[in-house]
Write a structure and sequence with these properties.
453 residues, alpha+beta, Nuclear Transport Factor 2, Chain: A, Glucose Permease (Domain IIA), 3 domains, ten-stranded antiparallel beta sheet, six-stranded antiparallel beta sheet, 33% strand
């Protein structure tokens, strides 16, 4: 399609030129009128006064500006000393040493850890006016200039304990489900510790499982800090109800009938992981690509995951064992031996002859030896014959003494009601311990490095 060009003839130009001139004149007239009207306004524009030295002289607000302090906050770096921190803040030589000595008089500097938060207040001339170092879970040191030196004071956090009741259902990971129910994710680890003899948290949990827990929450300065002792747990696992009640002066837990939960063997050497390969007399090896017996259970877990010994015993050997990589073997009562393969490293103090208790960390998972990826191969031998670790039915500890059964049943019934209603009684007295209301009083945290009296 062809475009059509419009031509403007002489007649159009003769009409447009006078019209444009008329509009220009109107605009000039209106602009002049507006300026005149503004100049006649009672609020006319005035030129800026010329700059003089007098305008920059101190005023009555100047002293307050000089006294103002500038806050600075940071964290103690790995390997960094407080003297180096003071150097960042402008203190050097004798000044830095004086500040360090003042801080050392309030806390043991050897207890400091990377990540501790420090705050500084700087004067307007950038000189250090005050310094605060906070120790997580304990308290803080406050330092202020005093003449040519420093005054340091330890300010402990007020610690208190409250009892909480929590109810929920499993929908995904246990930590996630606990958070959704309004509790701290770390509570999942404590629950796993209590029920680890009767349920494998790596493979037994089912979506829709119900849980109820009564636990202590530790508060610092009135804010949640950590999970304390668990008093009771009820867990419905695919129709199977598990109960655990803390009773007595020890940390022992008992089921609803007063039988101890602790058994000779833990269900798993890892708190959280997944079973990737089971015990088999004929399994296809992922590295060698051949069929051969697999006398253990593989748990998929990231490198560096703590491995806990499943029963009391004595370490038989530690070291390299061909395809097993780094291996720890532990001998137990009753002719049992457990083996932990493909480890990345051994825990401190783990060597032949070392005695270990159930739940102790003996090593960390890895992928050494013939391994296709990070995992733990856990094996159990009984009287020289390899057996399936998942088939172990551990022997229980001693039950509650007959003379204490009545006290236990009364305590159990109180906790059952609390769990069912999700309500905490005003006074909870653990048999053999002080009442919970006594624990509720705030107590100052102990100064790091101080000796308890």
């Amino acid at each position: 399609m062809q475009s059509t060009r419009v031509k403007l003839g002489p007649h159009f130009l003769r009409l447009a030129l006078p019209l444009g001139l008329l509009l220009l004149a109107a605009g000039l007239f209106l602009g002049t009128y507006s300026l005149k009207a503004f100049s006649d306004s009672p609020y006319p524009l005035t030129p800026n006064p010329p700059f003089t030295g007098r305008a920059a002289m101190p005023t009555e607000a100047t002293p307050r500006l000089v006294e103002a302090r500038i806050p600075v906050e940071d964290k103690l770096l790995r390997g960094e000393t407080v003297t180096e921190v003071f150097g960042k803040l402008g203190l050097h030589g004798a000044e830095a040493q004086s500040a360090t000595n003042a801080l050392a008089g309030a806390i043991d500097l050897r207890t400091l850890k990377a990540g501790s938060v420090w705050t500084a207040a700087l004067n307007a001339d950038a000189s250090l006016a005050a310094f605060t170092l906070t120790l997580a879970g304990d308290g803080r040191v406050e330092m202020n200039r005093q003449g040519d030196g420093w005054a340091a004071a330890w300010k402990p956090f007020t610690r208190s304990v409250v009892v909480r009741a929590l109810r929920g259902r499993l929908d995904g990971a246990l930590e996630t489900s606990i958070r959704q129910a309004g509790g701290p994710a770390s509570l999942a680890w404590r629950m796993a510790d209590v029920l680890q003899w009767d349920i494998d948290f790596n493979r037994d949990l089912q979506k829709g499982d119900g849980f109820e827990v009564l636990y202590q929450e530790i508060l610092l300065e009135g804010k949640p800090h950590d999970v304390g002792q668990i008093l009771a747990v009820s867990y419905d696992n695919a129709g199977r109800r598990l109960e655990a009640y803390r009773f007595g002066e020890s940390d022992s837990f008992y089921d609803g009938d007063g039988r101890p939960l602790r058994k000779m063997f833990l269900r798993s050497p890892l708190r959280y992981s997944r079973v990737t390969s089971r015990f088999s007399n004929r399994r296809f090896h992922p590295v060698l690509k051949i069929y051969r017996p697999h006398y253990g259970v593989d748990y998929g877990t990231p490198t560096g995951t703590p491995v806990q010994v499943t029963a009391n015993g004595v370490v038989v050997s530690t070291g390299w064992d061909r395809g097993g990589g780094n291996v720890v073997k532990v001998r137990h009562a009753g002719g049992f031996v457990t083996a932990y393969l493909h480890l990345s490293r051994f825990a401190k103090g783990i060597r032949p002859g070392a005695r270990v208790r159930q739940g102790d960390t003996i090593a960390f998972s890895g992928a050494t030896g013939l391994a296709s990826g990070p995992h733990l191969d856990y094996r159990v031998q009984h009287n020289g014959r390899w057996i399936d670790p998942l088939s172990l039915k551990g022997v229980r500890d001693e039950p509650i003494a007959t003379t204490a059964l009545a006290s236990f049943r009364s305590w159990r019934d109180t906790l059952r009601v609390s769990l069912a209603r999700g309500v905490v009684p005003k006074d909870l007295t653990i048999p053999g311990e002080q009442p919970q209301r006594a624990i509720l009083r705030g107590t100052p945290a102990r100064r790091p490095g101080a000796v308890a009296r």
